[in-house]
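Case study.
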Amino acid sequence: AQSVTQPDIHITVSEGASLELRCNYSYGATPYLFWYVQSPGQGLQLLLKYFSGDTLVQGIKGFEAEFKRSQSSFNLRKPSVHWSDAAEYFCAVGAPTGGFKTIFGAGTRLFVKA
Amino acid sequence: EPEVTQTPSHQVTQMGQEVILRCVPISNHLYFYWYRQILGQKVEFLVSFYNNEISEKSEIFDDQFSVERPDGSNFTLKIRSTKLEDSAMYFCASSGAFGYTFGSGTRLTVV
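After joint prediction, the assembly is written out as follows.
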């Protein structure tokens, strides 16, 4: 069955520290992978996506993610966290053909302390 | 950059009433979707729509829900008789060859 696992319900990091949010997926084919960010009461903002090619993808706001097929992982990283990064982060997976549904993980809430 | 537009941003309705959520997908996209996010939970797929018919639906999408593309630009989700547990954020999305875009959502509150 298709699924996305985000093992960390919440993470707290200090401002300026590095960040890594974990994501593992289960998918029968080569997946499309996404990271979205959501501030409280707001919509979903796409941070980055992986379709094919270079397994290290760069996104907005200084985020990057690395696709590791052998580990079925797509972890999100940022070298230096800002207080404004505090939000909920969702990893998601879809199919490489048109009309696919997106399957979301349960999300990781990021807290940033001064 | 093209956007998926959802209206209204907030809707409050009484239990048992019908509600229609509206979406304008990106113009050259062919696939349309509705997702739901109950407060504090993850985003869940409801339904996908292609070529004027439902292509896939989840078990959440029961007979109280329906979708329609009434004209060339709008895509709607109708909830026939709302229940308290329908309170959630509803996201519309559309996709094309390499693009998959979510709208900013409609927060539905059933009282």
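Observations recorded in class. Chain A touches chain B at residues 32, 34, 36, 41-44, 46, 49, 51, 90, 92, 94, 98-107 (CB under 8 Å). The radius of gyration of chain A is 14 Å. We will return to this complex in the next lecture.
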